Amino acid sequence: MTTDYSPRLFERDTDIRALGESLLACTLPREAWTHEAHLGACLWLLSERTDIDVDAQIGTIIGRFNESVGGVNDDTQGYHDSITRAYVAGVRLFLSETEETELAARVNAMLRSDVGRRDWPLRFYSRDLLFSIAARRRFVDPDLAPLPA
């Protein structure tokens, strides 16, 4: 695990809501779809968009966005199901434990936590399995430890 992670934080709740709405509308600029944006949008979806079934729709949401900005979802690029679902589990875990109530404060606290780290899924998956075509295309169970329930 790396030790020098310094996430880009969000200033306002409205920034996160605008990010999430832009993701859903496929109007977010490609360069704005960062690691932090992925996690901020996920937390927003889980906490404020309860009308969306994240488990059933996250692949479609991200895949559609990727294609809208000229990306491709294939065996080597674009949407990665196992990484995404690992982070969804992590964001849910974080939400169940945090005492933060404001959206930006929750997202920033999560980004500073272990769950927010870029290498967090590697606590559960070997590198070979996580970066396999099978794990990209569909969810595969972790081989090192179970994901948080």
TrEMBL record:
Protein's UniProt name: Uncharacterized protein
Organism: Sphingopyxis bauzanensis
